[in-house]
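re: that chain from earlier
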Amino acid sequence: MNLAINPAGGPVAAKVVQSPPVAGIFAEITAGLSNGEELESMLGQFLGPILCLAGAQAGLVRTLSDDGEHMRLVGERGLPEDVRLAELSVDRHCGTCGIAADSDALTWAADLHSCARQNQGGDYFGQHCKRMLAVPLRHREQLLGVYNLFFENDAELGPDIQPVLRSIGELLGLALYNARLERQNLRSTVMNERRFLASEVHDSIAQTLVYVNMRLPLLHDAMLQHDDQRSLRYFSDVEQAVGDIHANLREIMANFRTGMDPQGLLHALQGIAEEFIDRTGIALEFVCDETDLGLSAEQEVQVFHIVQEALANIGRHSQARQARLIVRRGERQIGFLIDDDGRGLADGVVAGDSHFGLGIMKERTQRLGGTIAIGPRAGGGTLVHLTVPEPGVHGVTS
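^ sequence. v structure.
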């Protein structure tokens, strides 16, 4: 409400009607969400234009905790420091925020006694802040958070403003939903890689350490008995085992440091084939007539790790002289065949044993929507046959 001057010279009350910069606010929020910045810090930044739009004097934004029982403050504008500290975490069902969280509607409150109690008797609520609006942040009926606007007077929002605030809440709810999905996917990826690393350490190092642990007492007894022949034999066993552990550990570290070749899967596989004989002493024949498999980046990464694991098993366990890696395009699928002329699989491995990292290979194949067959090769040795659906074929997850 502003004062204007009438022709007679006296002041009259006049409303200044301003068109809210709605399009600009949505553009700013959308641009902020798409530029890769940290979401929670941006939620606080968005409060500035939202306060301007609504004519509020202060505001805050909260996100729902992982346990679903609390609201955590992630951004605020215009609040006194003591109020900010008191609002860092509140019960999910507390007062007006709880009502908004349980509904799908904007919720007004003029009775702010529950907020005052939350702030241990401070004078902000009820004196400096006369009304509060709580806007739920939701997506697909799932609550992700709430933002609050605080007003010093009893001014009403125009009918065109409240739908905009609701739309902003839906947009921010979508952003929080996507961020939560991304965190869940990241956690799942980390857990899968941890299981993969545990499998690698178990197969390559832990079993050899058990062997060393069994040999050390024998070496100790032989030394106490001054049996030089036995001492040297057991010492040689331990020395060789420690050397194997060191070599396997270096291989694991190299595999985990190695990212996907920027020139693509086929170039990466060609590089593995060229280095294989130097690393393992086993000749590897690489057969591929394709120049572009057309796989997505995620598919290429999964295929690379599966093939890498299969070849690592050949190098570690097969005692082979020759191996092959064949890539062939079939009807609506791409096949990867890895075989060797070594000693073959141990009993029970094909039946689902996690030995040799086969469990991890199968998990990666499931992510691809493909199939993998692991078994004996005709004439001796082991054969691994991986098939991957072409992109666009039903069942592919890229």
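Residues 259-398 form a domain with the Heat Shock Protein 90 fold (CATH 3.30.565.10).
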